[in-house]
Amino acid sequence: MADASTVEKGGAGFEGVKLLLCENPLPPIDEAVEAARDELPRSNHYTEPHSAPLRELLADRVGVSTDHVHVNAGSELILRQLFDRFGQQVHLLTPTYPLFPEISEVYTETRLTPGDDFRFDLRELEVPDGTTLAVLVNPNNPNGTGFDTAPLPALLDANPEVRFLVDEAFVDFVDESVTDLVPEHDNLLVTRTLSKAHSLAGFRVGYAVLPEAVAADLNASNDAYPLTRPSQAAAIATLEHESKIRGRIADLRSWAGQLAADLRSLGVETFPTETYFFLADFAPHDAADVAAALRDRDIYVKPLDDDRLGPGYMRVTTARPTDNERVVSALEEIL
Ligand code: PMP
């Protein structure tokens, strides 16, 4: 069995099933791997400053000018920078991506509830006085559902002193992006990543669509060469073959749907999702016990660390079908 550090590294020789970090179970597309490999011998050269070719391609895809785009080594880094600048008092919709409570000095929250399937209606958002940064994750992690973004322009206009950060890490699964609102709203910040739908987590490619002044500030204070040559090449090749990614999204969704159905047949409650991960309530079992029993079988999952939900909650990420079968047969033994 692999030891913990091997697992954390997604390590060489690891033959278990790793469903801890919301990773896409599919490898990068072949074109990305080839493009990265082709760049290796040219790695004595820097990339273009601020990954200009990738920024231009992203700007073109999103439909904004390049001045609105910032590229960095993963969106987590960008999120940290935005919290540093604007996160004096944060408002979160919880449960949320665990990074956010971790990097907020002070935060208030709106709770998403199991009764509403953890779905959120933006019309009901009341941003507390004094908030400097309101964070919306669309679709949300850990539950995987998106929200209707139609009320956002009114919210932006009604709260000019609040910066709204929309984390679109999983937006490819819902196609309800708000990037088109950025040029007209200087209080809207949108982050995205190629780690999820595009399978490039290990290459570390994130980007943000920002008001020009914010993008200029981040570009100026950042390493001028944030991506390696192979990472930039893999990103460009993947974006140039986006139709392949679309096909994969359909597969991932259907595998997640099958996995959820299999869990329900074992008596586990599952919540709706639009992505390749979903929330499940293993009650009366404790999710931490279930995770430990799975770990003994070389399967690594993520119990939800949220006291206010029951102890049975777990974020379940789909693997490929044969690995999912392994997970389900392990659970048949455990539950
Ligand atoms: N946002 C959300 C909602 C995430 O789940 C993650 C990673 N799991 C990230 C941002 C960060 O992704 P990355 O740094 O790989 O771009």
Short description:
Keywords: Amino-acid biosynthesis, Aminotransferase, Histidine biosynthesis, Pyridoxal phosphate, Transferase. With 335 residues, the chain is α/β, with parallel strands linked by helices.
Low-pLDDT sequence parts: none
Structural class: alpha/beta
> How many individual β-strands?
13
Percent range of helical residues: 25-40%
H and E string:
HEHHEHEHEEHEEEHHHEEHEEEH
Keywords: Amino-acid biosynthesis, Aminotransferase, Histidine biosynthesis, Pyridoxal phosphate, Transferase
GO biological process, one term: L-histidine biosynthetic process
Catalytic activity: L-histidinol phosphate + 2-oxoglutarate = 3-(imidazol-4-yl)-2-oxopropyl phosphate + L-glutamate
Pfam families: Aminotran_1_2 (PF00155)
What does this protein look like?
- With about 325 residues, this protein is of the alpha/beta class.
- It folds into two domains: about 5-30 and about 245-335, Aspartate Aminotransferase, domain 1 (Alpha-Beta Complex); about 40-240, Aspartate Aminotransferase, domain 2, CATH 3.40.640.10.
- About 35% of the residues lie in helices and about 15% in strands.
- The protein contains eleven helices and 13 strands.
- The protein has helices spanning about 5-10, 30-40, 50-60, 75-85, 100-105, 150-160, 210-220, 230-240, 240-265, 285-295, 320-335; strands at about 15-20, 70, 90-95, 105-110, 135, 165, 190-195, 205-210, 270, 275-280, 300, 300-305, 315.
- The strands form three sheets. It has a seven-stranded mixed β-sheet, with helices on both faces.
- Helix 2 (about 30-40) runs antiparallel to helix 8, helix 3 (about 50-60) runs parallel beside helix 8 (about 230-240) and helix 9 (about 240-265) runs parallel beside helix 11.
- It is globular.
- It starts with a helix and ends with a helix.
- The relative contact order is 0.17.
- The model has no long low-confidence stretch (mean pLDDT about 95).
- It is an enzyme of class 2 (transferase).
- Keywords: Amino-acid biosynthesis, Aminotransferase, Histidine biosynthesis, Pyridoxal phosphate, Transferase.
- InterPro entries: Aminotransferase_I/II_large, HistidinolP_aminotransfase, PyrdxlP-dep_Trfase, PyrdxlP-dep_Trfase_major, PyrdxlP-dep_Trfase_small.
- One of its GO terms (molecular function) is pyridoxal phosphate binding.
- Its EC number is 2.6.1.9.
